């Protein structure tokens, strides 16, 4: 997937909850999923955990277990996930059973990864996607969750026709509406790319057109390597542009899974990168630092992942990323 182009739980009566579903620009959802849970969910079926389970005798296994597999991170859902409502329901149900907050990524927009092609695919039509995302949200239901919505979908508009952009923005606006209606205890972050991709003003314009006013916020640096400080400066600039042009600002989160050594300008399996600050709630700037991209999962057939496919777990890449070499 392409990442750089240019160098208090609150309980509310059901009637009030229904009124609050009509989210206005700049407002947040009625419920705070972080206040309904006790920490973040570490996926026991992550790619890194599955590798460890099958390679206990490998000398790299202990480090990968403690430094990657044990860290709460997102699970990505797409056209590989089977019946999507069943899949998201099972995932958030397992998290809820332990009182933990799950992070999910919705990654199935038609024309997915249209610019780079390493993660190409997605739903076959607007109608298919709208049905898929409605089922995704219904699977979560009233349980608490965080959702990162369609990484790259806003940034990749440079490779799309006006008609394709219009369709994509309509799908994203509808997706946000589906979560508001069907998953009221979910915070949705519409992806906005990273500091090396779009200007803050362009990112704000595209986010607004895609309906970020109805979302809880936006996400930055998904599957990329830019340091947290740079993302904070950029996120604040995007918010300033939103406020200036549209009259509201939004919370934002930063993917820190692979930004411990910063970026070298490359987006596809660059060498020498390092894991970053684990998933946590912050006191300012980004609302949360999240591990969205799983360290060790390939970006595609490129760089240190030559010969691999996007999403494939590469233990040597994961091991080196722990230590930053």
TrEMBL record:
InterPro entries: Beta_cellobiohydrolase, Beta_cellobiohydrolase_sf. It comes from Kitasatospora gansuensis. The keyword Metal-binding does not apply. The active site is at 152 (proton donor), 299 (proton acceptor). It comes from the Bacteria. It is an enzyme of class 3 (hydrolase). One of its GO terms (biological process) is cellulose catabolic process. The lineage of its organism: Bacteria, Bacillati, Actinomycetota, Actinomycetes, Kitasatosporales. Transmembrane segments: none annotated. The keyword Signal applies. This is Glucanase. Belongs to the glycosyl hydrolase family 6.
